[in-house]
Amino acid sequence: xxxxxxxxxxxxxxxxxxxxxxxxxxxxxxxxxxxxxxxxxxxxxxxxxxxxxxxxxxxxxxxxxxxxxxxxxxxxxxxxxxxxxxxxxxxxxxxxxxxxxxxxxxxxxxxxxxxxxxxxxxxxxxxxxxxxxxxxxxxxxxxxxxxxxxxxxxxxxxxxxxxxxxxxxxxxxxxxxxxxxxxxxxxxxxxxxxxxxxxxxxxxxxxxxxxxxxxxxxxxxxxxxxxxxxxxxxxxxxxxxxxxxxxxxxxxxxxxxxxxxxxxxxxxxxxxxxxxxxxxxxxxxxxxxxxxxxxxxxxxxxxxxxxxxxxxxxxxxxxxxxxxxx
Length: 326
What we know:
Blueprint: H1 6-15, H2 18-34, H3 39-58, H4 69-82, H5 87-106, H6 133-141, H7 155-169, H8 173-177, E1 184-185, E2 190-194, E3 200-204, H9 207-224, H10 227-232, H11 250-263, H12 271-284, H13 289-296, H14 301-305, H15 313-322
Antiparallel strand pairs: 1-2, 2-3
Helix pairs in contact: 1-3, 2-3, 3-5, 6-7, 7-9, 7-12
């Protein structure tokens, strides 16, 4: 999913009425301290709430009492008709609004919950995009040594290690950037991953991913840590670093995948597609659904079940092998 430019967030903040700025700040503190939301979730709540409060401010609203049912309806209608948001994006906006309105009531800013009139939109089960094993191999191997190596760290080795790990372990882009050196368990070939809600899980890395990761740690990462960055500990103990020695960000992982996907002739690929491919290929190979759920870090198995609908050839194989009259 493309990132919103930081300038847009600042522009929305500037549009807030003074009476709503303080409430907005207090709500973010509540999410961070009392709810303990992950940074990525915090960013999503912040963006969605800024959209709402900026619109209310533009209409003349200046206090929490202006967060009325009619204001919410107007906002949701704009998201649906003007911006034509997908049902999943709209559901996230509604979740933010509902939490915010409940918080306003609990803190005594308003007497009634304006969001009680809102219903969740129907979310259709959309099958995820998946690459074939051949396409995955072409994408990963697109990160190859250039014919004319550039001076400095061989960043293509880092990129190859990231691509291998994304597919081998089914990681999210944000999870790749947050991996610490202490999370690598080389002796047993697994990696400790911190996912949504700071939940941790152990995931096998696979032999190719281990091999490229070791090469990156040996040939690339030491070059990325300059004398200046080492003194300031800019790397924060993270595994994957940028050219300046700082931890790589989720946006950069997206850019890397799109870059090598284009080189491989797969322009629509993105990091989450590698995660989808990881799960689908495991299930196609006979993996247990519960095991795939644990590997992906899904809290609810219904989230994992969508992958069982992607590869219909497995259903035919089961019928052919198990039915008394195939």
